[in-house]
């Protein structure tokens, strides 16, 4: 599992018009090639009257599956530019379809490349990009007289306080980046003068929103 990676927030779309041609970009998080193909077919069925439904996707931790399809546009003017946008933004497990309704004015190879790239970028901006960060849940049990101090220090730290449970002792569930468990434990022991019980919980991904102007890692 990757410690962190970028992908789209979920599923979304955006439309732009260039020289009277309408370009509708659709993006979706797809974690398998089958999911990507199903998404592409879904959009093609929705826009079966369109001039073109071009597509691209990246799947896998190492982008081992990469596909681009021009769907009748001149070779290399649609699918590849769309795929390049995904790569430049450092995205993984992402599929994109750009539907074109021809407006009567030919754009030329350069114009098509820019149009399909722009439609992809706009759809990504509208949908949103997230960083999926692998986090370890650390369970800290402490006496109630330590709660104020521990909670205040946690909220001003890089660690994420997920929940507080009020039992016989107070129990705090804290998210720590994978690989920083030992550093966190040392910090917590020093903070409380070793008056807490610390146990490791499950590992899972947490999603953090990335600003729309993100250019890639």
Structural account:
There is one protein chain. This protein has 217 residues and is α+β, with helices and mostly antiparallel strands. Helices cover 30% and strands 40% of the residues. It has five helices and ten strands. The strands form two sheets. Strands 1, 7, 8, 9 and 10 form a five-stranded antiparallel sheet that branches. A five-stranded antiparallel sheet has the order 2-3-6-4-5, sandwiched between helices. Helix 2 crosses helix 3 (108-127). The mean pLDDT is 95.
Percent helix, as a range, is 25-40%
Portion of residues in beta strands equals 35-45%
Tell me the series of helices and strands, N- to C-terminal.
EEEHEEHEHEHEEHE
DSSP summary: helix tally: 5
**Care to count the β-strands?**
10
**Largest sheet, strands/sense/barrel:** 5 strands, antiparallel
Helix/strand/pairing class, anyone? alpha+beta
- Compute the CA-based radius of gyration: 23 Å
- Taken from the alpha-carbon principal axes, the silhouette is elongated
Features:
single chain; 217 residues; alpha+beta; five-stranded antiparallel β-sheet; 30% helix; elongated
Concise summary:
The protein is an alpha+beta fold and 217 residues long.
List the helices and strands and how they pair.
Blueprint: E1 4-8, E2 11-18, E3 21-29, H1 33-46, E4 52-59, E5 65-69, H2 79-88, E6 94-101, H3 108-127, E7 129-142, H4 147-155, E8 160-166, E9 170-177, H5 181-192, E10 197-210
Antiparallel strand pairs: 1-7, 2-3, 3-6, 4-5, 4-6, 7-9, 7-10, 8-9
